[in-house]
Design brief:
6 helices, 159 residues, mainly alpha
């Protein structure tokens, strides 16, 4: 950097980005502590919540939703299966595809974890007006769209 350039942290957009990153990191730590007694960690919770929402999803679809590789899935899913929280069953039409679903125990645990997570979010954001929460959500969704567009463009350049 030369003397005429502003430092990145003096730029409003950089400051905003750092704020989002720090809030995300601190929230992840808070969620980790809050659900520890359930014997799960945030990556497990992400899987369980998605299976709660999308019962019967394939492993590949789940990995895509969570933005992780299949190797990550292959490490986490057996842990959840061993605990009796999820089941992996072959697809009726394509035996190569495994469909994931929550067991009754997994469903109960997921509901408990979602209650804890939702309570934490409510406690943290209770002083923030709903319209401001929606503005932040809109801004983050814009960023997600931009990043996905960049990723698609990068993939097309490589292909």
């Amino acid at each position: 950097m030369n003397k005429n350039q502003a430092f990145p942290w003096d730029h409003p957009r950089f400051r905003s980005w750092i704020g989002v990153a720090r809030a995300c990191q601190l929230m992840q730590q808070a969620v980790t502590r809050a659900i520890a007694d359930l014997g799960i960690k945030p990556p497990h919770l992400d899987i369980l919540v998605n299976l709660y929402r999308f019962q019967g999803i394939s492993q590949q679809e789940l990995a895509r939703k969570l933005l992780v590789g299949r190797s990550n899935m292959s490490m986490l899913l057996p842990q959840l299966e061993k605990r009796g929280l999820i089941e992996r069953n072959p697809d009726a039409k394509d035996k190569r595809v495994l469909r994931l679903s929550l067991t009754p125990t997994g469903r109960t645990l997921t509901e408990e974890a979602m209650t804890i997570q939702t309570g934490l979010i409510e406690r943290i954001l209770s002083q923030t007006p709903e319209d401001r929460c929606l503005q932040v959500a809109d801004a983050m969704e814009d960023i997600i769209r931009i990043l996905q567009t960049l990723e698609t463009a990068d993939d097309e350049e490589e292909g």
